[in-house]
Amino acid sequence: MFSKKNSSRFEMDTLGWKDVRLEHGKDFLVVRVPSYCDILKMRGAAALANPQQEIENALSKPIESRPVENIIASHKSPSETSVAIAVSDDTRPVPYNGEREDGILLPLLRRLERLGVKSKNIKIVVATGTHLSTSQEWKKEAFGEFINTRYKILDHDSSSSELSCLGSIDGVEVKINREFLKADTHIITGLVEPHFMAGFSGGRKAICPGLVNSETTHFFHSAEFMDNPNATNLVLKGNPCHDFASKVARRARVDFSVNVTLNGEGKLTGVFAGHLDRAYYEAVAKAKIQSAIPVKREYDIVLTQGGSVATNHYQAAKAACGVIPVIKRGGIVILAAHNSSEEPVGKDDYIKVMETLAQTGPGGFTRVIKSSGWRFIPDQWQAQKWDQFFSKIGDFDGLIYCTTNIPPGDLKELPGKSGYELVGEKSVKIDEMLQKAIFYAIRKMERRTTGKPSIALMREGPYAVPAKGD
Question: What is the percent of the chain where pLDDT is above 70?
């Protein structure tokens, strides 16, 4: 609890304020905001009343595709047929667990085995892209004991020498996970939600960048692609990331896909199985309706959260970029992130490029990496997206980054204001840090504005996208 007396410069009288709840990894945080704080939230989307039945219906009546049973039957004897299924990693809350009623993986696996496909011939490939490998603990939680015990689950390695060549696409020599490519039947799965580079996640991204080599990933995240105004949330037309990933996925031959949409509470709202493109576009239409938040103004202060996706600082960029349409230049963004990964900031390359960003200042990083003397560094694409965020607000101190899982010294080195500066470094609680950040931001903006500073909460964080409109 926080005192309602102004006992320090980071405390305020909260009488008449309201409590709000923010997702924080697997938990939620409750903090107080002024009564006039606008709550920007996704449109209400009802969870499926009978998710198990809807999953079965989607598999039985796929969108512009043969059912998986017919696809298997077109190969050799089912008992000799191999199947590879691409699944998302720990940065996407896809409902896979076979012990959940909304688990999408077990119904698919059961169908394969009923057809005569042997469990030993089914491989589940975690499409990690260039992310860190997933832990055994995560696999157990994500898939459940039965799936973990019965099927081979392996992580993709983008730097492996054992990748298979797909040939040249747009001048890039594309390689792909060998275990996936050599299977007789290729199935992809994923979650369709806004993505700040590719427009929407899911679909073709299970292949590219999920299962390709590092060099292809670097092209997908090139400075030119990232600087394209269409490489942003909710946009597919003219988006170079989407176009390139789609070409790679088609070359890899996706035989069947299963994508889902979720609401703000993480409940299943749609299951879209079938053709690589046709089923995906139907999922995109659903996700766009759910995720786009109509807005008419920009705010002095925006409070947001990284959700389950913010396993590290690298991933938290999604939440920051989602705020760009609604934050004023010179405004303050408060971002809460759990960052519970073993590497809570990110890999060494990410730390290196963020150091460069800190040195160049807002807008400077993009100019540097597009210069003739720059040598490409993996993860620079994420620093470039951070640069676009800081360029909008105009000042590193316009971000207050709140986490208790990144050591104070490490967080201080990153662009932005560390939440530790507001509470100290001993016995820190994340809800206290976040509340102090709200007090600090309001006090600071009160000195700059006439009247009360405008403030908004992005309730669903990176899963929702503000869009100008009614």
Answer: 97
In a domain, 204, yes or no: yes
Return the amino acid letter for 346: G
Taken as a whole, the chain contains a residue count of 470
pTM: 0.88
42 within domain boundaries: no
Strand 455-458 with 299-305, pairing: parallel
Count of CA atoms in the C-beta half-sphere (13 A) of 457: 22
Same domain, yes or no: 263 and 382: no
- Asked whether residue 274 is assigned to any structural domain, the reply reads yes
Cross-sheet strand order for the sheet of 83-87: 152-155, 122-126, 83-87, 185-191, 256-262, 268-274
In a domain, 70, yes or no: yes
pLDDT confidence band for 35 (50 / 70 / 90) = very high
Q: Report the C-alpha gap between 336 and 340 in whole angstroms.
A: 12
Q: How far is CA 57 from the centre of its chain?
A: 27
Mean pLDDT of 237-256: 98
Domain harbouring 305, CATH code: 3.90.226.30
How does pLDDT run across 270-315, given as a tens digit for each residue? Answer: 999 999 999 999 999 999 999 999 898 999 999 999 998 899 999 9
Same domain for 136 and 74, yes or no, is yes
286: left (phi over 0), alpha (psi -120 to 50) or beta: alpha
Give how far Cα 170 sits from Cα of 224, 233, 459, Å. 14, 23, 39
